[in-house]
Structure formats: C-alpha cells, structure tokens
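To whoever is on call:

I kicked off a structure prediction for a single chain this morning and the downstream step that reads the tokens threw a length-mismatch warning. I double-checked the sequence; it's 190 residues and nothing unusual in it as far as I can see. Pasting both halves so you can look.
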Amino acid sequence: MKKTGFLLMLVACVFAGLSFTYVTSEFETSDNWPRKSKRVVGTNIGDEAPELAFAGLDGKTLKLSSLRGKYVLVDFWASWCGPCRRENPNVVSAYDKYSNAKFKKSKGFEIFSVSLDKNKEGWKNAIQRDNLKWKYHVCDFGGWQSKAAKIYNVRSIPASFLIDPNGIIVAKNLRGQALHLELDKYVTKL
C-alpha cells in the first residue's frame, strides 16, 4: 500500500512539474511581449494588422503598410450606410484634430478608409459630400463580398481598427467621443 501511495505521489509530482513548465513557457510578460517571432496577424487587439492593398480614388494601389510609423484608423464604411454617414463628421473631426498632433513614438495620425460600396460614383460623391479630406480611400466595389471586409472579418459597418505605429491593433470600433479619448492617450501635444 505504501509503495502504491509513493508511486502515485511521484507520478503526481512529475505531472505537476511538467504542467508548470508547459504553462509558464506559454505566457509572455510585459517585459518581453510582444515578441516579433510570435506575432499573430489577425484582427484582435494585440494582433498585427493584416495588410490591405487596394485601388484608391485615382486607381493607384494604396497599401496600409505604407503608413507604418503613424497611428492609423482603418475605417470601414459605405455611402449607403446611414450610421456610417452619421459617424463621418466625428471621423473628420478626429482627422482635423489629430493629423498634425505630436504623438509619442509616432509620426502622426492618418485615416485609411475602406468602402464597401459597389457603385464608384456613389462612393466618390459621398467622400466629397462628407468632406473626407484624407488621401487614403480604397474600394474594390465588392460590397459585403469585399476582400478587405473578409480579411478584417467585418460583418457590420461602421467598423474601425486603430493601429499603432508598429502595425499592432490597439483598439476597435471606436465611435463618437471614444475615438478622441483613445487618441488622446497617445498625444503629447495638439
């Protein structure tokens, strides 16, 4: 009986030791997180933002990665989307306020608008009417079948992703004052 108890205790200790080693090897602390070798490309906060490369207003390809070094708001919207159009003045306000602000460890702020429109004229007219003055506007005219929407798993709009200067998603779906409050965290001087 003592022998069986001893063996069970030994097996339990070995199992506990192996479990502890496995669990602690999977955790990352704030000292070493994020490790570039373990960086996940995805759409969750903390993930590296997936690349977007689509035609802009002039037909030339615009790449999200070309904005590395800046905070970037990836803004999914469409000309036919009422809530998007009502949110556009807030997005314009954020652009006006933060595009020339001084940021911690950043070259500034930019907006990368992704439209889920199917109609080019409707898209262009909405950009003009809503005074969306930034230069990064893309659309593949796929509507809900847009490649960008699939890459970012967008199922409703408006949708947004705030990306830091290293290309990491730091916040999602910021609307109204929440966008301004989040950007204020990173600004050193307006």
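Update from on-call: the warning came from a stale cache, not from the record. Cleared it. Sanity check on the structure: The radius of gyration is 23 Å.
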